[in-house]
Specification:
- By secondary structure, this protein is α/β, with parallel strands linked by helices.
- The chain is built from eleven helices and seven strands.
- It has a single domain, classed as NAD(P)-binding Rossmann-like Domain (Rossmann fold, 3-Layer(aba) Sandwich), CATH 3.40.50.
- α3 packs parallel to α4.
- It has a seven-stranded parallel beta sheet with strand order 3-2-1-4-5-6-7, with helices on both faces.
């Protein structure tokens, strides 16, 4: 059983890349999007089921994990669901991107099969974050039901959705790292991937938004000089969920076309 959250963009590419030979349980908040992608996957020969899921709801996430377990061994989880700064305000980003990922890590730690693996999608924004170690430790280790009550995440503490997104995505990276110990006790692995600017509908919306010019400049200055594709991320997921990556857990894989390197390396 391969469980994938997020029916568009990266989630769809991942389903097509790693879903062959397995039952795919595809989850999304948007029922219409779920049905469109289910039909596309089924037409391509995949065995696919769907479940409407709100990843910011503990009950909804628990129901998804129970549904997956009822269908057989849960060998793979790929959590791509999320919202971006132009799509949502601060509170929604905190609930979906940060809290939602924490809920998924907790729920699927209880049902993932020995030898199984998970990948959570973070962002290069998390790699760019400048957060003090004490706050980062809270993001990594605070019990999930207390996470949104952190003073640093209180109403008014985060000035805008861009900063909220950066904090949430850094939180994803460190929370995956911390969760790898519990997952390891089940004989399973968990990692995160931090994409750069990817040519998905979400990426297009960001490029058309207030930060679009800055993002295009980052891409132009990178080693590849291009936008990423959903297939670039799906290929990285395929590696991290494969046997070839059996010694890789608790880490973040930056898949950004060289953007972060271009920011770190001094210009000649």
């Amino acid at each position: 059983m391969v469980v994938i959250t997020g029916a568009g963009g990266m989630g769809a590419a991942v389903a097509h890349r790693i879903g062959a030979g397995s039952t795919i349980l595809l989850a999304d908040f948007d029922e219409a999007a779920l049905e469109r992608e289910r039909a596309t996957l089924a037409a391509a020969g995949h065995d696919v089921a769907t479940r409407v899921t709100d990843v910011s709801s503990p009950a909804s996430v628990d129901d998804l994990a129970a549904d997956a377990a009822s269908r057989g061994a849960v060998t793979t989880l790929v959590h791509t669901a999320g919202v971006s700064p132009v799509q949502a305000p601060v509170e929604a980003i905190m609930r979906v991107d940060l809290y939602g990922t924490a809920l998924m890590l907790d729920a699927f730690a209880e049902v993932i099969s020995p030898g199984g693996s998970a990948v959570c999608i973070s962002s290069m924004a998390g790699t760019m974050a400048s957060i003090d170690q004490a706050f980062e430790a809270k993001l990594a280790n605070t019990p999930t039901d207390e996470l949104l009550a952190l003073p640093e995440l209180s109403a008014g503490a985060i000035p805008d959705s861009g900063i909220a997104y950066t904090i949430a995505k850094r939180g994803n990276q460190v929370r995956v790292r911390a969760a790898s110990l519990a997952w390891g006790r089940r004989g399973a692995r968990v990692n995160s991937i931090s994409p750069g600017v990817i040519s998905t509908p979400m990426g297009a919306a960001e490029l058309a938004g207030p930060s679009g010019e800055f993002m295009r400049a980052l891409v132009d200055a990178s080693g590849t000089g291009r936008l990423g594709t959903p297939d670039d991320i799906a290929n990285a997921v395929a590696f991290l969920t494969s046997r070839e990556a059996s010694f890789v857990t608790g880490t973040d894989l930056l898949v950004d076309g060289g953007v972060i390197a271009s920011l770190i390396v001094p210009r000649a």
